[in-house]
Design a protein that fits this description.
Layout: H1 14-23, E1 51-56, E2 64-67, E3 72-74, H2 75-79, E4 85-90, H3 97-112, E5 120-125, H4 133-142, E6 149-153, H5 156-165, E7 179-183, E8 190-195, H6 199-212
Parallel strand pairs: 4-5, 5-6
Antiparallel strand pairs: 1-8, 2-3, 2-6, 4-7, 7-8
Helix pairs in contact: 1-3, 3-6
């Protein structure tokens, strides 16, 4: 299937990220959390929530990752339990797009209500050296992540393999872009949303897939 490429908007200040985060009801990083040494980095950001949708088939890598609860698990087996999956990539010391993306996921679970128990929400760290299971648990708690929302870390090699499998690897954590993936079931294609899809956009994609099965 043809993949539409994400068209980057002109770079703007991090104040846009902060404004969007506040609009979503996000909170600033917890006091005492280590600052991102690259917090000055200017991420490409659209002036408002915008995304490009495509449908892509991906093969999940056979790598072992570590969940926030400390369990070492095969990534493919752990998310291929038959439930729909909503997935993104983050890292906990990010001060630009990651808080926005994570707050969007928090709003997705709120909008789903009890339906959230019927799917998996997955956030994979692209900075596993810093993102220990303890750090991920604290991060998940800050965003009131429910049991359906799992955070993964592991080795750098495992993280890169997962990123490459989703065509999300950009060589350095400072070069990552906002992207969300939605899949109905194992073996089904993924809906790829490049950019800042809103919580309502993501919930709509999920419900559309479920209704069409």
């Amino acid at each position: 299937m043809t993949v539409q490429r994400f068209l980057r908007a002109p770079a703007v200040g991090l104040c846009v990220c902060a404004g969007l985060l506040l609009a979503l009801g996000g909170a600033p990083a917890a006091a005492g959390e280590p600052a991102d040494p690259h917090a000055h980095h200017m991420h490409p950001m659209p002036p408002k929530a915008a995304f490009v949708r495509s449908t892509v088939s991906y093969k999940l890598p056979s790598v072992t990752v570590v969940r926030a609860d400390g369990s070492k698990v095969p990534f493919q087996k752990d998310i291929d339990d038959g439930k729909p999956v909503i997935l993104n990539f983050i890292y906990t010391t990010c001060t630009a797009i990651c808080p926005v993306m994570t707050q969007i996921f928090a709003e997705v679970q709120n909008r789903l209500g009890s339906d959230r128990d019927k799917l998996r929400m997955v956030s994979v760290s692209i900075d596993p050296e810093q993102d220990t299971p303890v750090r991920l648990r604290d991060y998940a708690k800050r965003y009131a992540a429910g049991p359906q929302w799992q955070f993964y870390t592991g080795t750098a090699e495992a993280s890169i393999a997962v990123q490459k499998a989703f065509d999300a690897y950009r060589g350095d954590k400072m070069n990552h872009l906002p992207v969300t993936f939605v899949r109905l079931a194992p073996g089904k294609p993924w809906v790829r949303l490049d950019g800042f899809a809103t919580p309502d956009d993501i919930v709509k994609e999920y419900r559309t897939l479920v209704a069409a099965k």
